[in-house]
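Example for tutorial group B:
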């Protein structure tokens, strides 16, 4: 499928010039149709189609059966958008409180069954430093699209959600949609290089959402978050984490 990726990159390079190219293509098509009509080049084709109606119909059916699904698969992401908003690991945990009927200040509700260290007789171990560790932001970066066509914007956050647990979060995120898009942590900004970690399919084209890293992940050298098209080997956007 690399040939399709090369074709997509070539078309993406032409994207900034889409208006003059479109106008030129329309002008050429009109001129070609005028020449064909004036010189009668279309008449043999019409006679051949009329003489072989069954074959002509079969060719049309085959072209439509192959072209329509393929075109829809490749082009539909241009107008399909999805939005997802997930809570951030950095958001403070909600605190449940109950107000006293006597007018005194509200008191926090403690679940004794879920907190052995808070039993009435003092039984149970006290919380350790690891238990009380709060999520921390380790690195962040701004998304940059691969080119004018493959736009990407927003922030990538690398968060330690707990001791040894890490989350890659996208915030205020928006990107060009495409087929077979995956999220990677990679040593390189150009492609998922050796040692890159694939975190899963792109959850949405817009919004804020999280990817949990596999347990025991070594973050050394994983300096880029990227969105990559696996099928056609095309970069859509990347953010340097620093």
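The residue assignment follows.
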């Amino acid at each position: 499928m690399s040939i399709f990726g090369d074709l997509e990159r070539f078309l993406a390079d032409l994207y900034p010039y889409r208006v003059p190219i479109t106008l030129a293509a329309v002008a050429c098509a009109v001129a070609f149709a005028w020449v064909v009509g004036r010189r009668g080049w279309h008449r043999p084709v019409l006679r051949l189609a009329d003489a072989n109606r069954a074959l002509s119909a079969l060719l049309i059916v085959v072209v439509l059966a192959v072209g329509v699904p393929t075109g829809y698969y490749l082009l539909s992401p241009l107008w399909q958008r999805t939005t997802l908003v997930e809570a951030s690991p950095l958001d403070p945990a909600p605190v449940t409180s109950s107000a006293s009927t006597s007018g005194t200040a509200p008191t926090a509700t403690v679940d004794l069954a879920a907190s052995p260290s808070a039993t009435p007789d003092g039984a149970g171990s006290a919380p350790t430093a690891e238990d009380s560790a709060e999520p921390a932001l380790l690195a962040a970066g701004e998304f940059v699209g691969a080119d004018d066509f493959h736009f990407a914007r927003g922030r990538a956050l690398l968060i330690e959600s707990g001791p040894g647990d890490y989350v890659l979060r996208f915030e205020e995120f928006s990107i060009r949609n495409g087929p077979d898009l995956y999220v990677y942590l990679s040593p390189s900004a150009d492609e998922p290089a050796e040692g890159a970690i694939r975190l899963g399919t792109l959850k949405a084209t817009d919004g804020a959402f999280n990817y949990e890293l596999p347990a025991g992940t070594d973050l050394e050298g994983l300096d880029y978050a990227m969105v990559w098209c696996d099928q056609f080997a095309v970069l859509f956007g990347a953010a340097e984490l620093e």
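Residues 11 and 50 are 37 Å apart (CA to CA). Compare this with the pattern of hydrophobic and polar residues in the output above.
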